[in-house]
Write a structure and sequence with these properties.
heterodimer; A: mainly alpha; ABC transporter involved in vitamin B12 uptake, BtuC; 14 helices; B: mainly alpha; globular; transmembrane (chain A); cell membrane (chain A); ABC_transp_permease (chain A); transmembrane helix (chain A); ABC transporter permease (chain A)
């Protein structure tokens, strides 16, 4: 099939939306953290632990949405760890973030081995199933692409709207953006920079974990090591690509996922079979780097990103 | 959420002018103790006695001549990647891509060393080292230039390069570099005997990669403490604006740091292939690049400290391998211990210089 033809099939866009969902969730999480001035490199590990926690909860007998909530809660715990070290103690966000990723990843693998010592292949759960939204799913093309997804995907899109509304239309959102731009001014208003930043990192980490959970609970129905496979780092690039704005970040995630879906399809064409498959697998990472280079000149970085705030230094 | 500072308990950090020796030594010791506490709880969760677990780790790492040699061998690549990270982080250049640079060094070693150069050992080994260093330096040069030219954050680019480079190696191992005698496995041909690093002492399974690592540590220590470049790197790391104001060419220093850092990480790949494995496979490094970050941080970015930290980290890994077989506790215990040691150590070091006060 011709590449152009692929772009005009609804199933292609349905796949793109599916691939985009975990990225959308985790990118929103990272965006909230960075908007408050904290770079969270724990994202990769938090996605791993979220993927495991949600799946394990459902495997142990809870409902699917309870599983999502468990992933969210576990993500928040690691967010609490990250933010305690980086916000009041002002430790290097690079080092702490990488430390949290290593800790979350190895803790997940340890827990997996303890919980399932005997298994050779991980058990499957009854994952989220596609739900065709009444009426909307009957719209030609758009309906098939957008409205025949799993409820987890709809949740991700609603989350983007919620994040955008909270960030730009509420006092809480104003406070979050302000601690990322000018923390001294926020402190002068009598608000706690520490509390706002920690809150943002904790909630943001919860969404990152949900992004991971989507992989085990909706995209697939099982947990594998190396499952997250750098998606967290891609989300960090997507935040930059989206200029720290929820809507643009969503667009970036879908665009990115469309490229990913396209490469999978091109691999199966006659020309694609001639090219080593590793070239296709490299594409997401190369695209992320290109996106960073293109956007670097016009990105509006939060002014206080990675700048610790200590009242003593005012 | 209580956003109002006046109601809640708040804290801030106050610098300590002259920290006491007790504070300087006690806090890092407390961090290590806390790490072992965490590990004890996890061992108990696995149904094992923590003391026997630690005993088995210690025995597995240092309990016999074989164990010690295994630990030294495992420490060798970690010294190189630890040095690579230490020198970069000192200049606040966040090289998280030591994994990719390691594979670059390994790649050059097998490209030149499997028959392309048919030279005697004294001639081929220096050439392999030189080209491995160059390869690693070039791999890190790309993120460094993206940072200095376009302002692209090197954390993300170096991380992403790890994935790209591993796929690139995988492509070569299934294509042009594939060993025709490899029974279909994606592995390279073996190095010619002259391209192998000799053992330090005949009969002992310890190769000259370890010696090269020690020499590198001393050289980096000299560069950091005795050279202009070392001074400039520290100045750039402390305060970029002030360094630029003092006339230090910040971007050039960053690029030089990157070249040095990438070269060091590549030596880990060279030494693993030429000293230990003899050929290149995709599992050459079980994350030596990432573990190098832990090594460097535990060493407080001191090049000589890197050697000690690498031995400690290697000991935990080697010990945990044999402990896991004996006590039925997953080896990931080692990874958890090191990640928590990293986090607690950075906190402890900060608290030696700052005091937490209310208000």
């Amino acid at each position: 099939m011709d590449i152009i033809e692929i772009l005009f099939t609804a199933s292609f866009w349905a796949a793109a939306i599916r691939i985009a969902t975990p990225l959308i969730l985790a990118t929103m999480g990272e965006l909230i953290c960075e908007r408050a001035g904290v770079l969270n490199l724990g994202i990769e590990g938090i996605m791993v632990v979220g993927a495991f926690a949600g799946w394990m909860a459902v495997y142990s007998g809870t409902g699917l949405w309870v599983g999502v909530a468990v992933a969210f809660a576990v993500g928040m715990v690691f967010g609490l760890l990250h933010s305690t070290l980086t916000v009041p103690f002002g430790l290097s966000q690079h080092v702490v973030g990488l430390g949290v990723t290593l800790l979350a990843t190895s803790a997940t693998y340890y827990a997996y081995r303890l919980a399932l010592p005997e298994v050779t292949s991980p058990p499957k759960i009854a994952a989220f199933q596609p739900y065709e939204v009444p009426l909307l799913s009957e719209i030609p093309f758009v309906g098939e692409a957008l409205f025949a997804q799993t409820p987890f995907t709809y949740f991700a899109f609603l989350l983007v709207a919620a994040v955008a509304i909270v960030l730009y239309r509420t006092p809480l959102g104003l406070a979050v953006r302000a601690v990322g731009e000018n923390p001294s001014a926020v402190a002068a208003q009598g608000l706690s920079v520490t509390a706002i930043r920690m809150g943002a990192v904790i909630v943001g980490s919860g969404f990152m974990a949900m992004g991971g959970a989507f992989l085990t609970m909706s995209a697939f129905d099982s947990f594998f090591f190396e499952m997250v496979n750098g998606r967290g780092w891609i989300c960090i690039a997507l935040v930059v690509f989206g200029s720290w704005r929820p809507g643009k970040a969503l667009l970036g995630a879908v665009l990115f996922a469309a490229f990913d879906a396209l490469q999978i399809r091109v691999q199966q064409t006659e020309i694609g079979a001639e090219i080593p498959y590793q070239i296709f697998l490299m594409m997401p990472y190369i695209l992320s780097i290109l996106a960073l280079v293109v956007m670097s000149r016009r990105a509006e970085v939060p002014a206080a990103l990675m700048v610790p705030f200590n009242k003593g230094e005012r | 959420m209580n956003l109002c500072a006046k109601k809640g308990v708040t804290m801030r950090l106050e610098p300590i002018e002259n920290p006491t020796v007790l504070r300087k030594l006690g806090l890092p010791a407390a961090a290590l103790a806390a790490t072992f506490l965490v590990a004890s709880l996890l061992a108990m969760a696995a149904g094992a006695n923590p003391f026997s677990v630690f005993g088995l780790i210690l025995k597995g790492a240092f309990g016999s001549k074989f164990a010690v040699l295994e630990t030294l061998n495992r420490a060798t690549p970690l010294i190189f990647t630890g040095l690579a990270v230490a020198i970069a982080f000192r200049a606040k250049f966040w090289n998280i891509g030591a994994e990719a640079q390691l594979y670059a060094g390994a790649l050059v070693t097998v490209v030149l060393g499997t028959g392309f150069l048919q030279w005697p050992a004294f001639a081929i080994l220096p050439v392999l080292i030189l080209f491995a260093v160059l390869a690693g330096a070039i791999v890190l040069l790309v993120p460094a230039l993206l940072k200095t030219r376009f302002g692209v954050d090197e954390v993300v680019t170096t991380l992403l390069f790890n994935f790209i480079f591993l796929l690139f190696i995988s492509m070569l191992l299934e294509g042009p570099l594939k060993d025709p005698m490899g029974m279909g496995w994606p592995k390279s041909a073996r190095l010619i005997p002259d391209a192998r690093l000799p053992r330090i002492v005949d009969g002992l399974r310890l190769h000259w990669g370890f010696g090269l690592a020690l020499i590198s540590a001393v050289m980096i220590w000299i560069i950091q403490t005795r050279s202009t470049l070392g001074y400039e790197m520290r100045a750039v790391g402390l305060n970029k604006e002030a360094a630029a104001f003092a006339g230090i060419p910040v971007n050039r220093v960053l690029v030089k740091t990157a070249l040095l850092s990438g070269g060091l990480a590549a030596l880990a790949g060279f030494s693993e292939v030429a000293g230990l494995k003899g050929s290149l496979t995709l599992d050459l490094s079980p994350g030596f690049g990432y573990t190098g970050i832990i090594v460097a941080m535990l060493a407080l970015l001191n090049p000589l400290g890197v050697v000690v930290a690498a031995l400690f980290v290697a000991g935990i890994f080697v010990g945990a391998d044999s402990m896991s077989r004996a006590a039925d506790v997953p080896t990931y215990l080692a990874d958890i211990m090191l990640a928590s040691a990293l986090l607690m150590m950075v906190l402890a070091i900060m608290l030696t210089r700052f005091r937490v006060v209310r208000g």
